[in-house]
Design a protein that fits this description.
Elements (H helix, E strand, L loop, with lengths): L1 H31 L4 H8 L3 H8 L7 H11 L3 H15 E5 H4 L4 H14 L2 E6 L10 H11 L7 H11 L9 E7 H5 L7 H12 L5 E6 L13 E5 L5 E5 L3 E5 L2 H17 L3 H14 L1
Parallel strand pairs: 2-3, 3-4
Antiparallel strand pairs: 1-7, 2-5, 5-6, 6-7
């Protein structure tokens, strides 16, 4: 047991190590180049805060950002090579669910909440179940129990944390765009009776002016092959995508990849029902339950 835990937690540290080493290397390059943070920002046409966030490891620089930084600082080929390797590693975080849940299920909820609090827009696609931000407490309890393959004991705390995440929906400064399939609306583990309350919850959320919800009916073309759900957080200077697979969580910040997910969400939304038609679809489910 001890060795397994060591392996799980060390897997989660690989990405952080790359990010921290890159931040340290870039800061050293700036100092060796004799540039202040403001001078580097002026040279690159960035804000000084972007330079600071990169050096503090709060923002993952893209490959192009890293290259521009190193060019401005006139570093050696060896430093440039190592920086490019680190930049690539830092832009894709891949962690097994054992590592994600190593500190409990609640910790994972708190991590996603920090992204939601920084995002100006959140784009969500879910093919198989209702997104966490829209779940009722009982629905969330069943989902979190199902994914708790490592036997964590904090399911109630994780449910409460997921409910706290939903407070962001009521912040008019943020916009949320949800696209989900009809299959996701009908999914349940063991108790179909919980769906009526879940559909009511979705109808309630659609009354918010900053929330858009669109349904992809089973008899409509999707316009794209997309088997995994994802969340795209439009965070200034660091748009981020989270993709959940059966065994892993992927966190993507490479600009081209993020752009592809942005385009995928647009395509799926264009093939979905309108917001009004989606509400009508939900009402029909409620009336037939």
């Amino acid at each position: 047991m001890r060795n397994t835990m060591k392996d799980d937690t060390s897997e989660g540290k690989g990405f952080e190590s790359a990010r921290e080493e890159l931040a340290s290397l870039l800061r050293a390059a700036r100092l060796d180049g004799g540039l202040s943070g403001q001078e580097l920002a002026d040279t690159l046409g960035w804000s000084q805060s972007k330079v600071s966030k990169i050096e503090n490891g709060r923002t993952r620089p893209s490959a192009d950002d890293t290259d521009a930084w190193l060019s401005a600082c006139r570093v050696s080929p060896e430093v440039r090579r190592r920086s490019s390797e680190l930049a690539e590693s830092a832009l894709v975080e891949s962690r097994h669910w054992r590592a994600v849940h190593a500190r409990g299920l609640r910790s994972g909820q708190d991590g996603v909440r920090s992204l939601e609090q920084r995002a100006e827009v959140v784009l969500s696609f879910q093919p198989s179940l209702v997104p966490g931000l829209l779940q009722t407490a009982e629905y969330a309890r069943q989902v979190l129990t199902a994914v708790n393959t490592s036997g964590q004991r904090d399911v109630p705390e994780a449910v409460a944390a997921r409910m706290r995440r939903q407070e962001a929906l009521y912040d008019p400064r943020r916009r949320f765009e949800f696209t989900l399939t009809e299959a996701a609306l009908r999914w349940h583990l063991h108790e179909p009776g919980l769906l009526a309350a879940q559909w009511d919850r979705l109808l309630s959320v659609t009354t918010l002016g900053n929330v858009a919800l669109r349904v992809l009916p089973l008899d409509a073309p999707f316009g794209h092959l997309q088997s995994n759900g994802f969340l795209l957080f439009e965070i200034p200077d660091e748009p981020t995508v989270i993709v959940e697979t059966l065994t892993r969580e992927l966190v993507l910040t490479e600009a081209e990849e993020v752009g592809q997910y942005r385009d995928i969400h647009t395509t799926l939304s264009e093939h979905a029902l309108s917001e009004k038609a989606s509400r009508d679809h939900l009402r029909s489910l409620v009336s037939s339950s």
